[in-house]
Specification:
- By secondary structure, the protein is mainly beta.
- A hairpin with a 4-residue loop joins strand 6 and strand 7.
- The protein has a 26-stranded mixed beta sheet that branches. Strands 6-7-10 form a three-stranded mixed beta sheet, with no helix packed on it.
């Protein structure tokens, strides 16, 4: 995995940066923009600059706010964009919730996007001084007394779709209304420096998670993606590795509040197998915020699938999908008072009596975990009875439970486990006498 990490990061950055540099050397076009000013619509001038210089050229955004009033796509080919200012998407939920005013390029859960980048061999560098203003507070307060659901039209702030060899560098997204980032149907992409901040400022909702679904990034149907130097403040998944994400590297990730790093949900689409393979995550920090700002800091890493029974249809229902998750490493993880540090369950969206999931987890490694948990259950691995989990490994997991309690470890339908701590044997296997279910149960004293 170390070799894979080094190769992926080095190769992706080397190929993309070299190609982009060649394109810059031969580029003759440079487009420079300045904001038109308060209350003025910048959408036309932004689109015109990208149309002129987005292929074999350079586009430079000067400092300030660029007011964007409609959906926008950048098609970038062998080009560079330097952003020293922010794309300011107008704070009008009712406009954006009209399906005609957003794109539907992310298949899973029919998610909406107001800004899509596509193309190949490009760099978008925001120099830690530019990016997107999503005006999320308007959205969070708008939905304060309204229900939310997947596919309801809330827009992803930045979507990469059908990208090959692209770099997003030192990019800031302030107040994302929904997912901060999504990447779909793409390959050889590097995010090198991403800041997302969904922090409620409305005192009416102090102490509540009024910023749900503000994920840092969702990956889908993408291969060879590097997520480097992320700093995510959110009320949901810091990173979400969704179906058919392969050869993913995440390094130097800070998650402030929310649910932690997710694998899933998976298995939602009965006819579309989800495959997640070769994922390396290292140098991860989970930081619990002031509960008046964000009450949640749920997990370090959690993995979830739908059951094997179909309930309704996506985007809000589903289940019954197969596939597998394999060759995942999560190492050097620091936790600050999370609720369940390591969690795997295969009952998302399910009901009592459902068929077990057909999607199997295997070859998962958790290495060098430190910090604190609010509960004494440090590991909760509950695999499907239909496809028990083989080769689940733990090395140097040293997470402190609440004072005065002993750590416990729960493993169900785990075919083989290695390394959980305990006074005696770490875990012991029990073959059920009344079913074919194979399960393992353990706690700190080695008793079931």
């Amino acid at each position: 995995m170390r070799v894979l990490l080094t190769w992926l990061v080095g190769a992706f950055l080397g190929v993309v940066l070299t190609k982009a540099a060649v394109a810059q050397d031969r580029a003759l076009k440079t487009c420079t923009l300045r904001p038109l000013g308060h209350g003025k619509d910048d959408t036309d001038q932004v689109e015109a600059a990208i149309a002129r210089c987005g292929h074999f050229g350079t586009t430079v955004f000067g400092p300030g706010q660029y007011n964007i009033t409609r959906k926008m796509t950048w098609d970038l080919v062998s080009s560079r964009v330097d952003m020293h200012g922010y794309l300011n998407f107008k704070p009008d939920p009712e406009y954006w919730l009209n399906a005609n005013n957003t794109y539907r390029v992310i298949f899973i859960q029919d998610q909406a996007s107001w800004f899509v980048i596509t193309g190949h061999d490009f760099i978008v560098d925001a120099h830690a001084s530019g990016g997107i203003n999503g005006n999320g507070q308007t959205w969070w307060s708008f939905y304060g007394n309204r229900s939310r659901s997947d596919g309801d039209g809330r827009p992803v702030s930045l979507t990469l779709s059908n990208v090959t060899r692209g770099v997003i560098k030192d990019f800031r997204i302030e107040a994302q209304p929904f997912w901060c980032n999504a990447i779909a149907d793409s390959k050889e992409v590097v995010y090198d420096g991403m800041y997302c901040n969904a922090t409620n400022q409305d005192p009416l909702y102090a102490g509540q998670n009024v910023v749900p679904n503000t994920d840092g990034i969702n990956t889908y149907r993408s291969d060879q993606v590097s997520l480097l130097r992320f700093d995510i403040t959110c009320g949901d998944d810091c990173l979400a590795i969704k179906g058919n994400s392969t050869n993913i590297v995440a390094k130097d990730i800070t998650c402030r509040g929310g649910n932690g790093i997710a694998f899933g949900s998976l298995g939602q689409y009965v006819d579309l197998p989800d495959i997640v393979d070769n994922v390396v995550m290292e140098d991860i920090k989970m930081i619990r915020l002031d509960p008046q700002v964000q009450p949640n800091m749920v997990s370090g890493v959690y993995l979830k699938t739908w059951t094997g029974t179909v309930h309704g249809s996506p985007p809000t229902g589903g289940g019954g999908g197969g596939g597998f998750v394999s060759n995942v490493v999560a190492k050097r993880v620091s936790l600050d008072r999370v609720t369940v540090p390591i969690h795997l369950y295969q009952t998302n969206g399910g009901h009592s009596g459902d068929e077990p999931s057909k999607l199997q987890f295997s070859n998962l490694t958790f290495n060098d975990w430190t910090g604190t948990s609010l509960r004494n259950t440090i590991v909760d691995i509950e695999c499907s009875a239909a496809v028990p989990c083989p080769n689940i490994r733990f090395h140097d997991v040293d997470i402190a439970p609440p004072n005065g309690t002993a750590p416990s470890y729960k493993c169900i339908n785990v075919a083989s486990e290695f390394g959980l701590p305990g006074t005696f044997a770490s875990c012991f296997a029990v073959k059920s006498m009344c079913s074919s279910e194979y399960w393992i149960a353990c706690n700190a004293t080695g008793t079931s």
